[in-house]
Design brief:
CATH class of the largest domain: Alpha Beta
Strand content: 25-35%
Strand order of the largest sheet: 8-5-7-6-10-9
Shape: elongated
CATH superfamily of the largest domain: MoaB/Mog-like domain
Number of helices: 7
């Protein structure tokens, strides 16, 4: 059995990030750029108005100007204004040749097809977006390693980018073990429990932007589990098994992993909940054997599996560690790191009730995990402790 810090270090050491892949821009949100992106043209590609108003020659600002023509956004035909003329123009419209300034429509007096400017502080080039004002051809638009937020997607599409090279998000397989599992919506027979782990894990994965998820169900039979695990490993980058990782007569995960050629990195961690946690690798694939109790599943997922998947895609760990003040006295077993479901507000971390590993009700109301050190057996209200903020 190893410590929490040793387990996390071994997982990190085992990770080889996924190879970059080109994706269409609409599927790139939430990814990390794997290559610099450069502008393929000037943006804007022409001088354009930033206001509804009138395009003029600045030197004509003190004259009564004849309105000659109109330029709206999307106008394709070029247009020229002469001395003493103005052109009606709308936001995004291209400036007519010969013009250099736009006067807001609120700043003119309109009379019989002519305008008189009523703006004493008008400056040359006002309300004009120059060609290449956003970015010029060949300039660096976004650096390798940038996070593709919704705004980044909009920016890149706005400069004409249709595909980008990114670090892909992992393909994940979830394997549920246990003869006792029943699907929600169906009546429970004697000895059955409703299966919830696939639902919580899928929800957590989708919250992290991971959509390529397959779910498999395996009974408590070694040959069946081995076959399902072999099948999942054909396509998945990460496999999450729940249940069957302890040492009981019906716990077959460790043996099935061995038969599938998986290299065990560790099995069992000095922690509560989730002591039987298993981790192994096969080539670049990561395999996590999570305990079956719902609270243990999520504790191990947020502590180990989700950070590992972020690392695969070169993303920052979404589970942030901060310092907080403990909101209650706590007694715990020495020799185990303990993670308590908690509520974190304004620097105070308050332990919740129902901390047992089979109870998920406290996790449903938690926004953090309170981290209590392996070497200690009691904590006093008001102490500073470490807290993992859950990413939702």
């Amino acid at each position: 059995m190893i410590s929490v810090s040793e387990a996390k270090a071994l997982i990190t050491k085992s990770i080889i990030p996924l190879a970059p892949a080109e994706v269409v821009i609409e599927n790139a949100s939430g990814h990390i750029l794997a290559a610099d992106v450069f502008a393929i043209c000037d943006i804007p590609a022409f001088r354009q108005s930033s206001m509804d108003g009138y395009a003029i020659k600045f030197d004509d600002k003190d004259q009564s100007l004849l309105i000659n023509g109109e330029m709206a956004a999307g106008t394709a035909a070029p247009f020229v204004i002469e001395n003493g003329q103005a052109c009606r123009i709308f936001t995004g419209g291209p400036l007519p040749d010969g013009s250099d300034t736009v006067v807001m429509q609120e700043k003119v007096a309109l009379d019989n097809g002519r305008i008189t400017i009523r703006q004493e502080n008008l400056k040359f080039g006002d309300n004009v977006r120059d060609k290449g004002a956003e970015i010029k051809t060949g300039r660096l638009a976004m650096k390798k390693g940038s996070y593709l937020s919704p705004a980044a997607i909009g920016f890149l599409t706005g400069i004409g980018v249709s595909k980008v090279l990114v670090y892909p998000l992992p393909r994940v397989a979830i394997i549920l073990t246990g003869n006792e599992l029943q699907q929600p919506g169906k009546p429970l027979a004697f000895g059955q429990v409703y299966e919830s782990n696939s639902y919580s894990l899928k929800s957590a994965l989708k919250s992290a932007g991971i959509e390529n998820i397959e779910v498999f169900f395996a009974g408590d039979e070694l040959a069946v589990l081995q076959g399902i695990l072999q099948n999942a490993l054909k396509t998945a980058d990460v496999v999450l098994l729940t249940g069957g990782v302890s040492v009981g007569d019906y716990d077959f995960v460790v043996k099935a992993a061995e038969l599938c050629g998986i290299t065990q990195v560790f099995h069992k961690v000095r922690q509560r909940p989730g002591k039987p946690l298993y981790f192994g690798t096969l080539n670049q694939k990561l395999i996590f054997g999570l305990p079956g109790n719902p609270s243990s599943v999520l504790n191990c997922f947020y502590n180990y599996a989700l950070p590992a998947m972020a690392h695969l895609s070169r993303k920052e760990n979404p589970v942030k560690e901060v310092k907080a003040v403990l909101g209650a006295d706590v007694t715990k077993p020495a020799g185990l790191t303990q993670f308590l479901k908690g509520d974190f507000q304004n620097g105070l971390a308050q332990p919740l009730g129902a901390q047992e590993s089979f109870k998920l009700s406290s996790f449903a109301n938690a926004n953090c995990l309170i981290c209590l050190e392996e070497t200690r057996d009691n904590y006093v209200k008001g102490e500073e402790i470490g807290v993992l903020l859950l990413p939702y």
